[in-house]
Amino acid sequence: MPALEMAQETGKIVSWLKKEGESVAKGDVLLEVETDKAVVEIEATADGVLAGIKSHEGDVVPVGRTIAWLVAPGEDPPIEAPAAAPAARTMTATPSKPPAVARETVPAGPSGSGPQISPKARRLAKEKGVDISRVRGTGPDGTITSEDVLKAAEAPVEVPSSALSAVARLMAERTTQSWTQIPHFFLVRDVDAGALLELRTKLGGTVVTHTDLLVALTAKVLAKHPKVNASWDNGSIRLNPSVNISVAMAVQDGVVGAVIPNADKTAITDIAALRKELTERARSGRLKPADVSGGTFTITNLGMYNVDAFNAIIAPPQAAILAVGRIADRVVAVNGQPAVRSMMTLTLSGDHRVVDGAQAAVFLNDLAEAIARPEIG
Predict the structure, then answer these.
(1) What is the distance, to the nearest Å, from the Cα of residue 218 to the centroid of all Cα atoms in its chain?
(2) CA–CA separation, 38 vs 51, rounded Å?
(3) Do the bridges between strand 29-34 and strand 39-44 make them parallel or antiparallel, or are there none, so unpaired?
(4) Crossing angle of helices 357-372 and 194-203, rounded to 10°
(5) How far apart are the C-alpha atoms of 280 and 293, rounded to whole Å?
């Protein structure tokens, strides 16, 4: 069982996509594994034959335990996996993209590992967004063909309203856990974003976004407020040595936090480039575990959806999350006189076990001043 993220102890096998005894090539998707963040597809790192499957759908397996072997043709898998065998051919793999929907249990093939499907049909199913568990194969031995996939893509499908994809279910579980176990408190601050708009125009509005600027500014302020950048770790507070900003991104059936590491030490152009790359990977389902791990603080921006303000739920073990509303013209008092300014509302959600209201208020005030007079290196 591969370690797909920091602090992961177990992984749940959702489904095997290759059968016992089947030849596989490097890069072939072998199985789907569920962690507490997502369902990811595990690829083979070498050519071989899948053999000795020890764990099956629904099994929760500790990280590092052998779940199957990749052997040479004609070779038998070991009877028992060695306790520690770095040179052994235990299957280790790198994660690929999370599936769009969770696969349901279907009548299995001879090995009990799921429906048989041709490689071309599998690629086509992913392109068309077809759930192969709902496709009846018409090929030899019930194999799903590309024609079967095309027919399924064109046919209307009724999905129960209660059905949840694996990604949506995981997000529901994590937000419920956070909301019920973390003592949230909220601070709200209206900020004059006029200087932020001017800076974005100066840097190139099509290249650098408001979110990029907020990542850079927030990271620099966080470096001066280690408690807000800290984590709750099994009953104690852990001060994180680096500022890794997690940017909430909408994906199919949920939200994922893609991480920009060492954001306080990264140039704005590099932040913009990495954020764009992560966004593209998130939308196409190609985020890697490293892309969503190690975040110390989250920014979630719904301004592009014309939301004025909202409260966000903390992503544990982080201590805080910043919710950003849209930038809009408002009439405000300036030196005792009414004036129109481009205003933005920030809402900080804090974990009261890690940071208290006064500490969070000082951080939010410093951030507001940084936005009003932005300095980007």
Answers:
(1) 21
(2) 26
(3) antiparallel
(4) 50
(5) 17
Radius of gyration of the chain (CA): 24
> Which residue is catalytic, options 308, 351, 352, 366?
352
Helix, strand, coil % in the chain, rounded to nearest 5:
30, 25, 45
Crossing angle of helices 146-154 and 119-128, rounded to 10°: 20
> Spelled out in words, what is the top-level CATH class assigned to the domain 167-372?
alpha beta
Exactly one of 56, 184, 356, 366 is catalytic; which is it? Answer: 356
CATH fold, domain 104-163, is Dihydrolipoamide Transferase (4.10.320)
Query: Cα separation of 106 and 254, whole Å?
Result: 25
Residue 74: CB atoms within 10 A of its CB come to 6
pLDDT in tens, 307-316: 999 999 999 9
Instruction: Let me know: does 16 contact 114? Beta carbons within 8 Å.
Output: yes
In angstroms, the CA 247 to CA 256 distance is 8
Q: Among residues 81, 65, 47, which one has the least CA distance to residue 9?
A: 65
Q: Where are the domains of the chain?
A: 1-96, 104-163, 167-372
pLDDT at residue number 190: 97
For the domain made up of 1-96, the CATH class stated in words is: mainly beta
Q: CA 245 to CA 270: how far, in whole Å?
A: 14
Residue with tokens 């290196």: 377
pLDDT digits (tens, 9 = 90+) for 258-288: 999 999 999 999 999 999 999 998 888 777 7
- Catalytic residue list contains 210: no
Distance CA 279, CA 258 (A): 8
Tokens of 288: 């890697």
Instruction: For Cα atoms 297, 284, 288, give the angle at the middle one, nearest 5 degrees.
Output: 50
- 99: preceding bond cis by omega (within 30 degrees): no
